[in-house]
Every structure is written in structure tokens, then in C-alpha cells.
Amino acid sequence: MNYKIEVTLDDVNHILSATEQIEYVNHSPETLTFLYFHLWPNAYQDRNTAFAKQQLFNNEDKFYFAKEESRGSISGLDFKINGQNVKWELDAKNPDIAKLTLNQPLVPGGRITISTPFQVKLPDSFSRLGHVGQSYQISQWYPKPAVFDQKGWHPMPYLDQGEFYSEFGSFDVRITLPANYTVGATGVLQNEREQTRMDSLARVTAAIKEFNTEDLAFPASAKATKTLHYKQDRIHDFAWFADKRFHVLKNEVVLPYSKRPVTTWLLFTNRVADQWIGRAHEINDAVYAYSLWLGDYPYSQATAVDAALSAGAGMEYPMVTVTEPEAIIHEVGHNWFYGILASNERKHPWLDEGINSYYEFRTKALRNKYAGMVSSEVNTNAFGKFLGVDDLPPAAIDNPAYLSAVSCGLDQPVTAPATQFRTLNYGTIVYLKTAQLFQYLEKYLGTARFDSAMHTYYRQWQFKHPYPEDLQAVLEKSTGEKLGWFFKDLLPSTTLPDAHLQTVTSSGGSTQAIVRQTGKLALPVQVAALDAAGKTLESHWTKPGEKEQTVTFTASGIDRIVVDPEYVFPELDRRDNQSRLGALFPKSEPIRLQPFLSADRIDQKQLFVAPSLGYNTFDGFQLGAAFYNSFLTEHKLNYVVMPMYGFKSSRLTGLADVKFRIPAQGFLRKVELGVLGQRFANFHSIAPSLTIHNRLHNPTTARQQLTLAWHYVQDDFLPDFHAPHLAYQLSTQNAVAGTQVNLDVTHFRYTTSVPTFIVTPNTPEEGFQEVDFSPTRFRLSLENWFKYRPEKEIRVRGFVGFMADNDYSRSPYYLGLAGSPDYLKQTPFFNRTEMFTTSQGSSAAIRQTDRQDGGFRNGVPVMSQEWLAALNLTADLPVTSFAVYLDLGRVQEQDKLFYGTGLQLSFFRNALQVYFPVAGSNYASDLPKNFKDFRNSIRYSLNLQRLNPFRLLDELQ
Ligand SMILES: [Zn+2]
């Protein structure tokens, strides 16, 4: 396929005007009657494109709220084939895909010339193509045929998350623009004059001592224009980046095998110029290291450009990459995995992003051992020491970033297509998990054997479209090993193996270790004999496919046997991986108290500790500590014990939360058996529970959670009760709208003494009698919200509750009190003792409410033993950070519509909300009598679950 494109940039109206001519050769063995074309600028035309919809599910509302003039599109198309008009139409679903029906069938080996003019209205920077002022990122910009390969046509709409698949060809591109622009582009610049200009810019940049990071102004565009001419063979895309402010650094790297020099260019503005200078060597590092481990870079130049990009830290194009300075190695590395080995990135993102990340970390490790996604952040400084990870191999620090997702059932198969990953997983699974698994494969095969096999892969598949099975075939043939356990078992799996040392025995100068693996997978794992100083004396790998294996060591002076000493084996629990010879308890490691969090270790069990602080009016200030055994990665058994001391009540308070994870599969992502015990203020409670979470298959899956619990509550002022409780929650949301449904049923059982006249109204004597009660409460709420503009939303909540067996219930429904009944003790309250007696508290502690039941934000002390219905409306005000609210409610017992309205302020992700009632049924004559009346009606709610660090991962997903 040979492209000829001539394009002119209009930098006043941000429009490209171009003509394109493509020589299209049918290299397939099939006769073609039509062609698919990509018109990707149309992805930015409106809110209905695949790109626009994906943005919403990735929680990005910038494009959704963009003005018409900020959007983009392609127009002026007039396709001709061999100079003749041709029938073409836009895809019904995707306006960024077109289908051209050929006038004559194109036979194998046949050749046609397709031509068209086109205009691109450049969008603002929402993804990859766009402009920020007069800084231009021109990518995915021209009409481009889709790939037709042995699996057929691969048309694909443009997406932010999920990349591309393109045919190789030669490009001849002429770009006309004002003369004072500097351009970084795919291909080799042909204009001698511009080459001289670039060289002189490079000399100027090299002489700059200090960059003025404040100065980001665009100089005026030159009246005169210039036409830059670029040519290149054997590439599959062409991108260019133009800016009048670019500084230029020019360098050279000599390739390891051919000794051919490659010119490297860095183009950057003042914005983060110092970081570019500091990382200037990294472009050369990447070109050299990837060449060394895979094969020489085939082109004569490589360029990295700094530019505003709204799709991650960088984006790769052949020979040119647009990137933040910290991603230079990764993006330049894509020349191999994407550029030269041109796999289908949309379908198999791990083949380019994942394997490229493996080489990226390996390249960075040439200068710093701790070079991974996480280890580069924590291990180079005092922070690493504080976390107690400074003596661990890098993999021990990097692996938890994906193991944490695995541990709570949020894993997805490495091999899934790009569109299936939820945003966070796209980074942790596609990039990091793949990279870590390839490191494991490298260690298993041995670096030399692995490198040699990858050299073969590069040689055989360069300038082609390899599929996963092609990579497996080359690696198997080259190494002589069957690797189905890696490609077919491990990569597509969301369960992991778990290896542990069963027994270790010594006899007659040799040591036998029995290694067992549980779970579905049985993968090779390294087993090593270490001396007392931790040095490896001897090590062996177990064979794949065998769950129990005996490993024999002949070395002398063995102190301990360790499974997976380099932390590369993809397992969750490493605490059973070590056995000390001759120790009284060979498999019990010392327990270390570690502040806050750390990485899991083979040689130590860890107990984490963090300070805790509390307050309520009964206990006063409480000070204590939280002890827990897991934070980022959940274990089978997870616990938090938080003892505190109440300085006013002079007694021990606190909570203990123990959860046992039951292996979950299929629809279930997480099943937990737990017990929560609490002792605060005037109550103590214990609640065993079973909680089930559904699996989140893709970004659009709704979250569901079902909890079955049994609460036992002992309250100083009320009869003890038992309450079986069933709760179901469903929530779904995107960047601009969401829905949440809550349904729960609570069956209370308690005995209390009641005046006998209530039991039998005709009894003359007064007295008390013990009576059993068992009311059941049903509650259903539905909440919907949508944004009417960025950061501003409208919420509607409806609630109904009714009681079965309502005899003298002590658990009625409330419209809204100053304080909440909170029967099941699920919300931390400052004051639990006064809330039943006061509707307008005078102290701040009893003005707390939790928005249960009627959800009234005004203190309307109305309750029901029968049924209650409420409607709550909230609308953020456009200009201030206040929202207005209106609550409406009815109860069975009173023939009246209650209401409350006022203003609301929210803080800390809605964890704290403060309500200012302006009018409503809480006031004697619907309005406050005076300022004091108004002031005393101010109330607030606290939802600390929103800030719970133990739910961080769940919240992020
Ligand atoms: Zn990448």
C-alpha cells in the first residue's frame, strides 16, 4: 500500500485541507469486492460515536460536555478508484467507518489507485487527534483502509481505550504550514533547508542553561509558509506534531548488531523542559536495548515529542511518539511492539502494551534495579525503607499492583480485548500483569534462551501481523519447550496457582523438598536452597502440570528452602513458601509489626498497625490503634482489630472485623464470610454475615451485592434484639449518570416488658408483662442522578418502607430526626443517647442524621409503624457549591404531606454533608421564627464509608 498525501494546516481555524492517493495492492489470496476505510476524525463528531460512549464508561465527561465548535470531523470526501467515481457509504453504526464498493472486483495481486480530497476539522484535545491552541497533534487523521488478513476484514471505530491495526506500506507526505513551525513526524525529512533549520535549533537548545517554564505563549505565525516533505517505507501509520515553541535536541545511537547510527530527536516546549533534559538519554537507551534484545531498529531516525495529549502518558506512532518524559522508553519501545511487530492491538492489547511494558521495565532496570511501575516509586528513597521493602526484589513490589485486583476478584484475563477492560485494569492487567508474567517466563526459560527466542520472533514476524498463536509457536520451536501452560492456561486465567512447601527432609547429604500447588493451575516454580546469609546455593524449577513434586538438593550448608525466591511466581500467598532446616518450627516466620502497609514477604509474617482516633459524647475522645493483616492484597483470612480507649467513659471501646474469603467463580467475584463486633457508646453488637459480589465482566457491568447477616445488638436503653437482615444493592453509573437500588428486609426479634393495659386493655390493675415482638421491616429505595454540566448534578431518590406485624414496634420508620435510630449500628454516630428525645438538638453532636428511610434533611420528627413514602430531590446550584433540596413524605398514620427544603453543602466526596433548612414542616409555621430557630435546625450527616481505606480498591474500580 503506497500513500501520497498533501496537506495544508490552517492554524487560524484549526483545519487540515488535504488530498490523498493510495495505491492499494491485494496481497491476499481472495478477490475483494469492497474495502473498509477508517475515517477516524468522525469519532469526534457527536455524543453517539463509539469513542464518545466509551469516554462515559471510563468516567470522562470532557467530550460529552464539549461545545460544538470544539468537536471534530472529516468532510469533503470524494472517493475515486482509478479516477472513476465509486459507491461508498458510512457504516450505519459507526460514522468513522466507511465501505467502498469496488466497480470491478480486485483479484489477488491486483492493484488499484484510490484517491480523495478531505478536510479535517481538528477537535480540541480529547484523546489523540487534536490541538491545544496552536499546538497540533495530528494522528489518526487521514482516510485509511482497514486490514484484511487471514481472519478477514478488521474495521474498527476509533476508541480512546483500545488501539489500532494497520497495513504496512510506504508514505510520501507533504505538509504545508507557516514557516516558523517545528514538526516532529513519522518518516525521514527530505528538505535540506529544514534539516539545517532543525540542526541550528538543536544547537540553540543545547546552549540553553535555564528554561523559562512560565513562558508557554505561542509566537505569531509567520506569513510565509513552507512545505515539508517526508518519506518512509515499511511503516503502517503516519503522524505529525507541530508547534512553534519546540526546543530541539539531536543525538545519535549506534545499533548493537549492524553498527548503523540512528539519529534521535527530542522536541519539547518549556512546560517540563527540565524533565526532558534529565531524561534525554532514554530515547537512546530504548533504541539500543530493544535492538539488543530483539533485533536492530530498521529505521534511520526516532523522535519523541512533548505535546498535550488526553489519552494516557503517551501515544506511539511509527518513528515518532508523543509522550510525557517519563514514558519515553515505553513509547519508543512501541516501534518494536506495534510498529514493526504489528499485531491487532484492539483485539490483543497484551501483545503490544504488555510485552512492551516488560521490555520497558527491563530497559529502565539497566540504570536502576527498581524500575517497575510501582518499585520505581517506592524503592529509591526513604519511603521504601519506611515501607520495609528496600531489601526485596523489584517484582515483590510491582506484583501487588495486579495481585490486589486478583485478590478481590477484580482480575480479568490478560488476553481479553481492549474494550473489555475496566479503566484501572487496562493499566494493571494489560500493562503490568503481562509484563510481570513475561518476567516470570524469562526467569523460567533463562534470559539467554528467552532472548534468543524473541530474536527469532522479531526476525520472522517483522513487518507482519503476528497473532498470539504465532508468538507461542515461535517460542516453543525456538526453546524446544511446550508453553501451553503459559499461553493457554496462565494468560487467559483469572485464577492463580498457589505453591507451598509441604515437607523438607534431609538425609545422607541431600535435602528433599516436596512442593505442592493448590488451585486449578500447576505451573513451574523455582525452588532454591539458601545459606544463612540468604545467598542461593542451588536452585531448580519444577515441571509444569504436576501438582506435587519433590526437589532434591545436594549442596551443603543449607539454612532454608524457599519457593520462588525472586517473587516472580504469580501467587497470592507467599507466607507458606519457606522452611528452615533444623528449626523447631521450620515453617513459622517471625511476625513483624509494620506501620500502615508493605509488600507481602516470604520470610516474615506481617501485622500492620495504624493509629486510630474517635469521638462520641458517651466515651469522649477515643485513642487507639488498628491492627490488620492485609491492606492492598486480601488474603483468605483478613482481619482488622481496632481497640481504643474512651477518655470520658474510661473504658475499652472499638471494633473487630474478621472476613474469610471463599473462592468464587463464574458470576460470583467475591464471597465473604465475616463477623463484625463493635463496642461504642451505649451499645455493643455482633453481626456475622455472608456477602456476595457479582463479577464485573466489562466497563458496563452493573455492580450487585447481596448480604445476609444476623445482628445481635445490646443497647443500654432498649431491649436486646436479634435481627436477621437481608440487603441487596445494585448500582450502575457512567461519567454523567447513575442509578442505585437498595432493598432490605430486617426481621427483629426481642422481648420487652410492656404495661399490661397494652396487652389486655380491659385489665384493671396496672402492671408489666414480658412480651415477644417480631416486626419485619421492608425498605426499598431508588436513586438516580445525572450531570447537567461538569461537576453539577441533579439527584432524585424515592423511598418506600412498610412494616409487617407492626404490634408496638420499636423499629418504626422515620422521616428525619435529629439523629437516627440506626438499629443495626451501621453508622458511626457522635451521640446515640439523645437522638430519640430531641428533634432540634442544641449541641452539634445530636444534629447528626443519616439519610436513611425518609431521608429528610430537615428535622421532621414524624414516624410510622405502618408505612412511609418519601421523595428527595437535590440539585447542585450552577454557580456556588451549594445544592438546593426538597424532601416530600407521607406516613400511614397522618393525613398530611410533610416537606422540607433548604440548602446543602458537601465535603470530602460527600462523606460530610451539611443541611441548612430554609422552610418545611419542622418549623411551627413552615418558616423559621428567627435566626436562632434557623441556626438550631442546621444538621449534617457523616458517611465515613466513602473514605474507608480498606474499600479503596473497590471504590477505584
Ligand atoms: Zn503503550
Automatic annotation (TrEMBL):
Domain Peptidase M1 membrane alanine aminopeptidase: 327-488
Name the record gives this protein: Peptidase M1 membrane alanine aminopeptidase domain-containing protein
Organism: Rufibacter hautae
GO MF annotation list: metallopeptidase activity; zinc ion binding
